[in-house]
Amino acid sequence: MGNDRIEQRIIMLAMIAASISAYMGYTVLLILGLYKIFKSKPLGMNFICKKNGLLCSIIVYLFFQLIQTQYTFYGLQAFTLIILQIVAYITIRDNFKTQEEYGDLINILVLGSIMISVIGIVQYFYLDPSVVPKSWIDKTVYNIQIRVYSTMYNPNVLGAYLVSMICITVTAIEEMRNRLFHVISLCLCSICLIFTYSRAALLALAVATVVLTALKKNKRYIIYGMIILILALMIDGSNYTQRMSPELASKDSSIGYRLEIYKAAMNIIQDHALFGTGLNTMQVYIDQYSTQIKAPVFHGHNLFLHTLAETGFIGFSLLLVMLGKAIKNAIEMVIYSQNKGIKTIGISMSMFYMTLLIQGITDAVVFAPQYAIFVWTMMAISDGIWMKLEKENRQHRWWRYEG
Fold it and tell me: Which residue intervals define the domain O-antigen ligase-related in the entry (predicted)?
């Protein structure tokens, strides 16, 4: 078995492990990183710097962040996890070469989504409501008893993950060889999403269905969205009606909670505009900058404010460049590839980035380690395919085949 195949198998194992436990997933990625360092020359850094100056810039800046922060332990935690995510990204981007190999990886992600969804659905029926944090429920406004979180540790993070997987499966079903497998994933992810009661995730899914209907000129996506709405009302109509009510939302403690976090984050940005406070330090600084929030808050509940607060203007600029490049690559896959399967993956990834940005307005779940491992994997799939598309100059039969 060649090195590429070994690394592919390790990545697939990491995705399955991460579906069960984020810690297990990162442990497997650590093994992958050590393996790549062992076989790389010189100094084991070739695999990081190869073909991507932007990644090198990000790593250098993150290392600077680690040095300049007052909270080195927190920074080291985040730095280590990001390096492992980058190792996974580069491995997928460089070592998966054929449409079949990417299809196998997507099937592994779909299998993981089935596992995560089943765990979440079981939680809905069997989890003791007393163990659910009160801040997730807001019983002064709603009558919700349970919000599931599966192996993602938080219902909003789970909601973001489920929407990203739905974007992949709902657009790819007609192109996949094993459609039943993907249909099962779509059904389970959709049901589990309802049980999260995540408004941001449901809004992102609603926008995605409308956009997909316009792009593919097919009513099936609107029909799917209507089915989700009907299921939500059938399962817990009164609470969903309340939760979507603007009047009740204004009384929701989570709204005031977020506004207070935004206020603290903007004050942090004002004091640390250029370099930020350092990776993984919001849990310390929000408490210092807010007179109302005392519990640890691990992210700024807004993708852009969080990035500015922790990494400053430089880190924020690097994030915009990275996201802009990834979105551009996904769109070019749709425009330039004449292969229906590759074009479909491009549409799926474009929808994924769109929903990520929508949810980024009210959450920064992309920085949650349990979700970030999948975010980097999806980015690697779209970037890897785009790089091969560019290399072949849209002439190789792998891209042009219409099967």
Answer: 185-320
Q: Give residue for tokens 């429920």.
A: 137
Of the candidates 204, 160, 206, the one whose C-alpha atom is nearest the C-alpha of residue 374 is 160
Question: What's the rounded Cα separation, in Å, for the pair 317 and 344?
Answer: 30
CB burial of residue 138 (10 Å; 0-12, 13-18, 19+): middle
Q: How many domains in the chain?
A: 1
**Number of Cβ within a 10 Å radius of residue 315:** 23
Tens-place pLDDT, residues 218-236:
788 888 888 888 888 887 7
Contact partners, residue 100, CB within 8 Å, separation at least 6: none
Q: For the chain, give the longest Cα–Cα distance.
A: 62
Which among 364, 366, 358, 359 has a CA at the least distance from the CA of 299? 364
Q: What is the pLDDT of residues 242-280, one digit of tens each?
A: 666 666 565 666 777 788 888 888 999 999 999 999 999
- Provide the 3-class DSSP secondary structure of residue 21: coil
Give the three-state DSSP class for 143: coil
- What is the chain's Cα-based Rg? 21
Distance from the first to the final alpha carbon of the chain: 29
The CA–CA distances, whole Å, from 236 to 144, 146, 181, 399, 402 equal 9, 11, 28, 46, 44
Q: Name the residue type at position 222.
A: I
Residue type, 173: I
Q: Is 107 in contact with 181 (CB distance < 8 Å)?
A: yes
Host H or E run for residue 354: helix 340-359
Q: Would you say the pTM of this structure is higher than 0.85?
A: yes
Q: Mark out the alpha helices in 40-98 (DSSP H runs).
A: 46-49, 53-68, 72-95
Q: Which domain holds residue 87?
A: 3-400
Q: What angle do CA 23, 27, 31 make, to 5 degrees?
A: 170
Residues 6 or more apart from 165 whose CB is under 8 A from it? 109, 110, 113, 185, 189
